[in-house]
Amino acid sequence: MTAFKPYPELIIDNFDEGTTRITTKGGEDVFVAIAGRPEDMQRFVDCWNACRKLYAPAAHIEATDARVEKLEVLRAEAWSAATALQAEIEKRGDHAGASVGSEWTYDIAAAPRDRRLWLATKCGKLSVTRWNEKRGAWDGLAAGEQPIAWQTYVVPVHPHSSNAEGIAA
Hints:
Shape: rod-shaped
Order of helices and strands: EEEHHEEEEEEE
Oligomer: single chain
Strand order of the largest sheet: 1-2-3
Number of helices: 2
């Protein structure tokens, strides 16, 4: 992160009668006026310094820097966790996260027509559907589209239930 460089604080230095010099606290000249009213110069310096504090108060800058540091630490932790999870997934194999249930059956003619089923289509989608007697087709599939595989639709059991098996719908 680049360091913030705030506008300098200005001060007035009356070094000669009738001449006013405006400098930074470090002593660099900003403006030298041979003629002019000292109260106008003072007003300019007061306004400059007030706007400088409004623009970038030190507490705000420190808080922003701390927040950026915290976000960078969180980003690094998240990246580390994602990398570890990816390694674990790769170690388990392709089907590690797949739900356990019945196996896919590729004989579509054997699919029961009186219950909900999971259907896999050739375009890679999965659908939960039933056979529609009126249409003579599977609900949710385009006319003439045939699934490539099916399996029983299992209703999951609530985690607080004593029954560990799902219920076939």
